[in-house]
Specification:
mainly alpha; Growth Hormone, Chain: A; four-stranded antiparallel β-sheet; 25 helices; carbohydrate:proton symporter activity
């Protein structure tokens, strides 16, 4: 496809026109046909892991992809600690609200940092915010490992939670905004799926000391607590060398740095790559539009029907990721197994570890399918399967209780159904963060990440208090509540979740009925379509009388 560009010299309005044609796929049968991302993505002659610039980028993005390991580790570790006699004895056998408060320690840290997280990410940048969060997690994990009282253990979890919150709020935009366009969906999906790796790591690190010489002393729980600091330490090492989000740099007016990063990591150093020019043009135009419309404050969520729809989806995705019955397994597996008649500590730890291995395998497998199957089909299949599995699990639990846990076959079938439920749960897991990052425009993306994490935190607080009390009070009957609620979730997904597969971040506005914006392929300039030019400067101003200096294209909702 062929298109015309005019370089606009800053400050003097002098222009020099020239024609630019890509190496391939730029020629069009029809003059004036619009460019898409598919037109400028180069066809590589070897896989990404044999392409140096893509391999380097994906390795460095581990600094953000590993963020959820800390969250997964924390949830599974606390689950395992409840099975350790030394931990229960040291903290005077916590239960009820006391246990719930310990479990909620990290969520209290979320609340502490809530007013500041998105501001820090937008002010400092994604990369520095991530490093700051990692440092706090290292400090919290160290304090937790050496805690000598309930109060200190709780305080360490609050610090750990605050750091983890800033970490994940910064990492999600960093990964989605910096990843190679065709890798974005899968990498973002893996970022959340890797939660399961943290859960597996914690289960293994809790099981190993218990089965060793540390079985009956406090190091059986101090060792897994201290190991929690190693992942954020590794993140810091990667983050030091990782690129900053080019979209954040452009938002701050640092065009040259953004161009350098896009060229280095998306085109192997070729600043004249059609892909780099396309990305720069589209990002600049979109961000300048957002600045012109003042789409940078929290009130933006309530200004239009489209942004309110986005806000509703962010909250729904965050809530559904935590209140779908999965928290019972994640945080209260010990209580559930006790209610099923499985009371041996070693056996409980083995089941916990098996579930985390199963979950990790399922999550990574489904993360690799995100690009091919779309968001809606995976959400709908996940919630439909979860609902079916939970209904069967509830029936089996009722039968198990009626036989006073004497029928081992029912117990085995109940545990098997937990694994089946976990499979469908982890089908939704990799889509959650991908979807949230896609539906939020740049100026609201850090805020969207904050809202998503806060929603998760609030739901976890609910789970940690209500689930514990409900399980003690009504046993298996509490599962009925979740069967009904998951069916409600399926209905909401079916009617209100739009598909976003196959679109660039700047193009997803179309699915909400909004306009998309295209700019020049250079830092300054104009781009001509069907003979109609709209000049675009880096400050969003116009030099030809257009309403805001940005070429508008109305796209019907899909």
């Amino acid at each position: 496809m062929k298109f015309t560009e005019t370089n606009l010299k800053a400050g003097n309005h002098q222009t020099s026109s020239h024609s630019v044609t890509s190496d391939k796929d730029f020629e069009a049968d029809q003059e004036g046909q619009e460019l898409t991302l598919d037109d400028v993505i180069p066809k590589l002659d070897k896989p990404w892991f044999r392409t140096p610039h893509l391999l380097r980028l994906n390795i460095l993005l581990l600094c953000g992809m590993l963020s959820n390991v800390s969250l997964g580790y924390d949830g599974s570790m606390l689950n395992g600690l409840q099975s350790l006699p030394a931990w229960r004895k040291y903290f005077n056998h916590p239960s009820g609200a006391i246990l719930g408060t310990l479990a909620n320690g990290t969520n209290f840290g979320y609340i502490v940092l809530l007013p500041f997280a998105s501001f820090i990410c937008d002010k400092w940048g994604r990369k520095r915010s991530l490093i700051a969060g990692c440092i706090a997690v290292v400090a919290g994990a160290t304090m937790q490992g050496f805690s000598n009282s309930y109060g200190l253990f709780l305080a360490s979890r609050i610090i750990l939670g605050a750091g983890a919150f800033l970490n994940v709020v910064a990492s999600a935009p960093l990964v989605s905004e910096t990843a190679y366009p065709t890798h974005r969906a899968i990498i973002t999906a893996i970022t959340l799926s890797i939660w399961s790796f943290g859960a597996f790591l914690a289960a293994a690190m809790t099981y190993a000391p218990y089965m060793s010489l540390f079985r009956d002393n406090n190091w059986s729980w101090r060792i897994p607590s201290l190991i929690q600091l190693f992942v954020p330490a590794i993140q810091i090492c990667f983050a030091i060398f990782a690129p900053e989000s080019p979209r954040w740099l452009i938002f701050k007016g640092r065009y040259e740095e953004a161009l350098e990063i896009l060229a280095k990591y998306h085109a192997g150093g070729d600043r004249d790559s059609p892909l780099v020019k396309f990305e720069m043009a589209e990002i600049i135009a979109t961000l300048e539009m957002e600045k012109a419309q003042n789409r940078t404050d929290w009130g933006e969520w309530f200004k239009t029907k489209a942004t309110m729809h986005r806000l509703s989806l962010v909250i729904a995705v965050g809530a559904f990721s935590q209140i779908s019955g999965n928290a019972l397994i994640a945080y209260y597996l010990t209580i559930m197994l006790n209610n099923m008649g499985v009371t041996n500590t070693a056996e409980q730890l083995r089941i916990n570890m098996a579930l985390t291995i199963w979950g990790l395998t399922a999550a990574i497998t489904f993360a690799l399918c995100v690009k091919n199957f779309g968001r809606r089909p995976m959400f709908l299949t996940a919630f439909g399967g979860m609902c079916t599995a939970y209904v069967i699990f509830t029936i089996l639990s009722a039968r198990n209780a009626a036989t006073d846990f004497k029928d081992k076959n029912i117990g085995i079938a109940s545990i098997a159904m937990m694994f089946i439920f976990s499979t469908f749960q982890h089908m939704a897991t990799p889509v959650n963060l991908t979807y949230v990052m896609e539906i939020c425009p740049f100026s609201l993306r850090a805020k969207g990440s904050t809202i998503y994490q806060v929603t998760c935190g609030i739901c976890i607080i609910f789970n940690n208090y209500v689930n514990n009390i409900a399980m003690d009070a009504i046993k298996w009957k509490y599962y009925i509540v979740w069967c009904i609620w998951i069916a409600v979730e399926f209905t909401i997904v079916f009617f209100f979740y739009p598909e976003t597969r196959g679109l660039a971040l700047e193009e997803i506005s179309a699915v909400f009925g909004e306009e998309i914006y295209h700019g020049d392929a250079n830092d300054y300039g104009i781009r001509t379509f069907e003979g109609q030019a709209a000049e675009v400067g880096p400050d969003g101003t116009t030099r030809n009388g257009e309403k805001d200096g940005i070429l508008h294209q109305k796209v019907e909702p899909v």
